[in-house]
Amino acid sequence: MNTPPNAPNTPDSSHTRIPLAQLEALLAQVFERHGTSAQVAAALAQNCALAQRDGADSHGVFRIPGYLSTLASGWVNGHAVPQVEDVAPGYVAVDAGNGFAQPALDAARSLLLEKARRNGIALLAIRNSHHFAALWLDVEPLAREGLVALAFVNSMACVVPSGGHRALFGTNPIAFAAPRAGGEPLVFDLATSAIAHGDVQIAARAGHTLPEGYGVDRHGQPTCDPAAILDGGALLPFGGYKGSALSMMVELLAAALTGGNFSFDFDWSQHPGAKTPWTGELLIAIDPAKGAGHNFAQRSEALVQAMRGAGQARQPGDRRYAERALADQLGVAVGVQELASLRALAGIV
Ligand code: NDP
Ligand code: PYC
Question: Active-site residue 59, yes or no?
Fold first, then answer.
């Protein structure tokens, strides 16, 4: 919400820049100091630092207070050791043990890759997991391995289905990544709600209003006030019944298929401070080398050129790559206050 959609962030004096490795080490220290194992801390710190590097206002260091209050509430197991199950030639499952999804994905990634290459396609079904992060980081590395990848995560009931009268779906993002010859992988990553819940929080904090059609208040009346959405209101799907159908699909793939909770299944009311949805995640990895479309990466580059020719100058992922290029050169942009509180949380005086 704070960032023009087509331009990288331009940090002002309220921001500073820090090398990626330093940010990652700082975040790992914060996580470990607040109730995770070293392994979980490393996975979460890497994920969060990479999201911040790529300019994710709503899913970088902004999420740290939510992670920590969740750990303090006992809602999530910061020491969980994921159990990887080799279910079938094209199927890997992981029980994340009420831990975070990122260590579960780390534990299963090599088996998923091996199966996708052997069979042409493979699924990774993660259940009993908490995903509080940006989803493109789960698929982009697979595209860098030459695979086409899709990921689906459901979250917490805060989206009213099309025509409905109460929140049922999560903000349920879908991410896609595909290799591209001579360029960065093509990646998109989008919430199926009109706006991500994190961006509603950011808008409320900044005192901004939202466009019409994003949410309703506690009485079910349309509102542009983010605070009213957060205070007992709800979000709407993007694109009316079309986004609602995609959100339904995410519930089915990320929860019903994996054995995870639906977004409306869990009750965290006995864990004040809990923020991380206890759900599931599905990843699909496809080896395009097995398809009839030889030179898939060249075909995807041809498609990009055709889109440019048709007038679409900005591709999904472009903003994140531009942010990344700046961060690689100058360091990762972080709020000065945010960095100070991260240092305090890490016990650095
Ligand atoms: P955005 O609406 O910011 O962006 C959605 C996609 O559209 C991105 O791939 C973006 O590319 C692309 N895009 C944006 N503007 C344009 C444009 N003008 N032309 C072409 N492409 C464009 O994302 P959301 O707000 O929907 O989601 C934000 C994040 O929240 C995601 O990372 C998502 O995974 C995360 N999230 C996580 C949840 C969870 O349960 N873990 C739940 C909901 C959301 P670009 O990246 O280059 O801007
Ligand atoms: O921004 O909608 C969101 C979200 C939900 C869970 C993690 N992020």
Answer: yes
